[in-house]
Amino acid sequence: MQNFHLTRRAVLAGLGATALSARAGFADPAPIPLTAQRALAQIAPEGYPQTEVWSYDGRLPGPELRLAQGTRLQRRFVNSLEVPSSVHWHGIRIENAMDGVAGLTQEAVAPGASFDYDFVAPDAGTYWYHAHTHSMEQVARGLSGALIVQERDAPDVDRDEVLMFNDWLLDPQTAQIAPDFSHPMDLSHGGRFGNLIGTNGRFALTLRAKRHERLRLRLINAANARIFVLRLTGLSGWQVALDGMPLPAPEPVAQEIVLAPAQRIDLIVDVTAEGQEAAIERLGNDAQWSRQVGVQITGAASRSRRAPPAALPPNPKMDRPDLAQARPLEMKIEGGAMGRMPMSRMRGLMQSGKFWTLGGQAGPVDPPFARLFLGEPVRLRMVNDTAFPHAMHLHGMHFREVLEGERFGPMRDTLLTEAGASHEIAFTADNPGKWLLHCHMLAHAAAGMTSWIEVS
Ligand code: C2O
Ligand code: CU
Q1: Which of 236, 319, 320, 353 has a Cα at 20 to 30 A from 410?
Q2: For the segment 59-99, what is each residue's pLDDT rounded down to a tens digit?
Q3: For ligand 1, what atom is nearest to the CA of residue 445?
Q4: Using one digit for the tens of pLDDT, what is the confidence trace for 211-245?
């Protein structure tokens, strides 16, 4: 990775981690460290100063972690920041104790301490990892990275590229991250939006490809609040997976690709541009610094594939929950600016720094929103009675949207609910433990849109 330099503190912390691993080496070989540390990164356009970020291993985004489906990921998370932290593996069907939610599945890892994450990744696909302690601030400061679980039979493509879309709220002169993480405007409206759009930690990213090449693009939205709307030019092809989970059949890429916070979309596209350039354009012009992701075309591939790609191999558990037997639940999403929550209730909430409720509660609170029996099918109606969209994420289990006529939508772990809309999701509660259900607009999650369920 270019564009970053380790700070002295980070280097010292790294040495500390090495010493730690050597000591632990008596029994098992110590897991590879993944270290949260300060670093400098050139996020802003050239000519601006570097930005101090919180990083994993001094990189922005964090190192791309790749493993084969069904194999183990073992990482010693070393916290070299001055604040507690923890790592969540977003979208992985994981053992509860490894889910990384401070205060729910583990204690936050204190500064200078470490925690060993160790889990098997049962499903192939595009996932990501990010801080889950004060995530609104920690993710906005840079603590996220891609987690790729590779299929045993990978599709036939020439390149496999991860594109992590993010935005950064930077001071326009100093290019440093705006440090106010409790602004009532962010908390009560759409969330914290950046003024610089970046991809893979950079302002201007250009991929290289040959004409007629076939690419797999793994799009990840790591932003705090921004819904990216993307359009391909000079590239055409298919959408093959959502939130890691393969679609039953490849579908032509939509004119406008909507990627809500925390969502992922896998595309398989052919380079069809006649000229020298193709692009992944971002629609909307609401950031001070924004540039499309360019694809520079250098020559032509010797062969071109015309046939559409096959579907990705299905993951082991892509069942359809039994709707007839499913327990019905309803969760109202309320609050925020311009909503219908009575002012008297809103005032009460605001006294505790909250603006939103899920199922009537500004969470996280005890008891859980629901206690489910292991193996129980559930249908959950989420009613967005607010003036904003919300990206609702369930930990530990993927779900399907229940569409008109009781048809099932694709499997997802994060669903975008538009203002005023109501969506029903269904899943089988087959993973025991305490699982968060929250909005991935992280300012909303911090301001009350955090709930949880317990499966036992
Ligand atoms: Cu991406 Cu609660 O997480
Ligand atoms: Cu929200």
Answers
A1: 236
A2: 999 999 999 999 999 999 999 999 999 999 999 999 999 99
A3: 2
A4: 999 999 999 999 999 999 999 999 999 999 999 99
**Residue listed under structure tokens 């596209």:** 269
Of the residues 150, 175, 199, the one at which a domain ends: 150
Residue (of 454, 349, 444, 315) closest to 391 by Cα position: 444
- Return the bridge partners of 278, or none: 295
Please state the pTM of the whole predicted model. 0.93
Question: What are the strands of the beta sheet with 125-131, ordered from one edge?
Answer: 62-68, 144-150, 125-131, 87-90
* CATH at residue 417: 2.60.40.420
| DSSP summary character for residue 421 | -
Predicted confidence (pLDDT) per residue in 18-38, tens digit: 444 444 445 567 899 999 999
The ipTM is 0.98
Pair 21, 146 in one domain = yes
**Residues 6+ away with beta carbon under 8 Å from 307:** none
Total domains in the fold of the chain: 3
Distance CA 277, CA 297 (A): 6
pLDDT, the chain, mean: 93
Range of the domain at 191: 159-300
Which residues have CB under 6 Å of ligand 1? 88, 90, 130, 132, 262, 393, 395, 436, 438, 440
State in Å: Cα 39 to ligand 2 middle: 29
pLDDT of residue 17: 44
Q: CB neighbours of 174 closer than 8 A, spacing ≥ 6?
A: 49
